[in-house]
């Protein structure tokens, strides 16, 4: 029988399992990840896994969200560098984040598998990962407003720019390879320019 954990223990164990899962994904991909191996390395009973996720797919989606949140938290440390050119800063962040993920998909099957799983899981509805992007957009918009760097900003439009880049990314295999990055950059830049009015 799986042990019941208090909230603090659950948070610590979940964090540890996501870190270990990320390491295991890099070692062997999603198909090679076993719940038994994950719980063994975490130091909990195998049945305790289900206190955190309903299945392995739910874990994989959470790990994608977790990794995205980590990357965006790093970007927050550089908000002060965005004041001279908010449009360029945000367009570059979205573009670089997308291209980095595309390159990982091409080199490591785990990323392509996870991207395909996320696209399948979210067909016809808002992507769960948009919660992370929403928080990021709110923070940077508040920062720009506080510093007087923008006249106006459409946060929903910028959120949809993130989501649109993800939709393009999840379909990059349908593009001729040499045109994808240019199409992605053009889309992102045009959208960010549309939704941010600078002073």
UniProtKB/TrEMBL annotation:
SUPFAM superfamilies: Homeodomain-like. The lineage of its organism: Bacteria, Bacillati, Bacillota, Clostridia, Lachnospirales. It comes from Catonella massiliensis. This is TetR/AcrR family transcriptional regulator. Keywords: DNA-binding, Transcription, Transcription regulation. Residues 34-53 bind DNA. Pfam families: TetR_N. Coiled coil: none annotated. It comes from the Bacteria. InterPro entries: Homeodomain-like_sf (IPR009057), HTH_TetR (IPR001647). Signal peptide: none annotated. The keyword Transmembrane does not apply. Gene3D superfamilies: Tetracycline Repressor, domain 2. PROSITE patterns: HTH_TETR_2 (PS50977). Residues 11-71 form the HTH tetR-type domain.
